[in-house]
Amino acid sequence: MRETLQAFAGMGHMEQEEMVRRLEDYRLESLHRDRAALYFHEILRRIRVVDHEQLGLLLDDALDAGRISREERGEILWADVVVEGKTYDGREVYLLAEVSVTVAADDIRRARTRAQLLEKATGRPVLPAVAGRELARDPETLQDAATVWCLLDGETAPPGPA
Predict the structure, then answer these.
(1) In CA terms, which of 5, 14, 31, 125 is 20 to 30 Å from 58?
(2) DSSP letters along 89-137, please?
(3) CA–CA gap between residue 84 and residue 93 (Å, rounded)
(4) For every one of its 162 residues, what pLDDT tens digit does the chain have, with 9 covering 90 and above?
């Protein structure tokens, strides 16, 4: 621990900020996995986290069946959170979320792309989502946010016009 603190103290201000941002992102990802039923309850019920081992096995089956490529399998495995459950109208679905303290256009694109690939792999509908404390305020992010579920600082917004 002492070596870690010394290394941190020896970093420049920008490096320290980047390390803190990454730690905050990791903590938020963990919270969304650990408390999935809380964070995703406005979208789904009967929520079950698909842990990384389960996801890998699910994707191995899809790879073996020829539904996805090795590259697509690898891309899906980078997803921050995958859960399965039922929509309130009774459909069995997956939800794939990318989590970041400040959600940006890249997070939204990754969520959409990985959700499409998971749907291809499983044949089951996949809801793309992003989660974080805030949305970046640039025009691209604001426009793209309408294409996914957004969970921001306790508020849930469905895809569609704001």
Answers:
(1) 31
(2) TS-EEEEEEEE-SEE-HHHHHHHHHHHHHHHHHHSS-EEEEEEESEE--
(3) 6
(4) 667 656 656 667 677 666 656 768 778 888 999 999 999 999 999 999 999 999 999 999 999 999 999 999 999 999 999 999 999 999 999 999 999 999 999 999 999 999 999 999 999 999 999 999 999 999 999 999 999 999 999 899 999 976
For the stretch 9-30, what's the b/e string if a residue is b when 16 or more beta carbons lie within 10 angstroms of its beta carbon? eeeeeeeeeeeeeeeebeebbe
105 touches 140 (CB < 8 A): yes
Gap between the Cα atoms of 108 and 105, Å rounded = 5
What's the pTM? 0.88
Quickly count: other Cβ atoms within 10 Å of residue 78's Cβ: 9
For residue 50, the tally of other CB atoms under 10 A from its CB is 21
Domain ranges of the chain: 2-157
User: What phi and psi values does residue 148 have, to the nearest 5 degrees?
Assistant: -140, 165
